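1st attempt posting a full record on here, be nice pls
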Amino acid sequence: MKEKVLVVDDEKGIREYYKDLLQENGYEVYTAKNAKDGLQVASENELDLILLDINMPDLNGLDALKKIKEMDARIPVFLLTAHEKYKRNFASLYAEEYIVKDKKPDFIVRKIGEKLRSTA
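the predicted structure (as tokens):
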């Protein structure tokens, strides 16, 4: 059975990029255009991992992260950020990883695979 990943990002191009990348690597991928929709998808599906943008207009990723962890503290969440400098500011949060959006595809796939193997 394919592992299920949710990609939450308000930028359509980013969502589609991660969706295509992850599908090509054997994952079943759900997408959401904002945090509110992402929370809905997360509540309706048994997900294995969530990629969550930090900066979104309706509900930011950090607030969404807290709500996700309240729903299911075991689900790994990787925060997506456009800026490396933000990684240091969020060290105390419950995210398992921070991925800068310009990282190479093989890095992203490797990090997701490592996390999913470690939680299996």
